[in-house]
Amino acid sequence: MRGTRWVDDEAAIKAMQKKIPQSVGECFALIEREMFAGPWVMGKDYTMCDPYLFTLAQWLEADGVDINKTPKIADHFKRMAERPAVRKAVAEETQPLQSAA
């Protein structure tokens, strides 16, 4: 049985989904404009913030956001994707999990 909460309202869900590209795009614009020190997120040193931003940036296309509207983040994404450890992690992420037999 469906409840009466607003999240069960199909119209509300669709309205929220329509706003995703705008709201996510605005968040990334804010990160680029106010928080991204460069060349890495926190400045000259690579920190835990870098793989986290990379992970979030991987979802931009599915959210309907053009990463190229944030050139610093687009460059960061490209540099992160070139790192051997990132390549390995992304490759492992796409493999099915194996049971511990």
Write the SSE topology:
Blueprint: H1 10-35, H2 49-57, H3 71-82, H4 84-93
Helix pairs in contact: 2-3
Please explain how this structure is put together.
With 101 residues, the protein is mostly helical. 56% of the residues lie in helices and 0% in strands. It has four helices and no strands. The chain has helices spanning 10-35, 49-57, 71-82, 84-93. Helix 2 packs across helix 3. It is flat.
Average pLDDT for all residues = 89
Largest sheet properties: none
Shape: flat
Structural class: mainly alpha
**Could you tell me the strand content as a percent range?**
under 5%
**End-to-end C-alpha gap:** 39 Å
Helix-strand topology string: HHHH
Which regions have little confidence, pLDDT < 50, spanning 5+ residues?
none
Percentage of residues assigned to helices:
55-70%
Q: What's the β-strand tally?
A: 0
> Quaternary status of these chains?
single chain
Describe the structure in brief.
By secondary structure, the protein is mainly α. Helix content is 56%, strand content 0%.
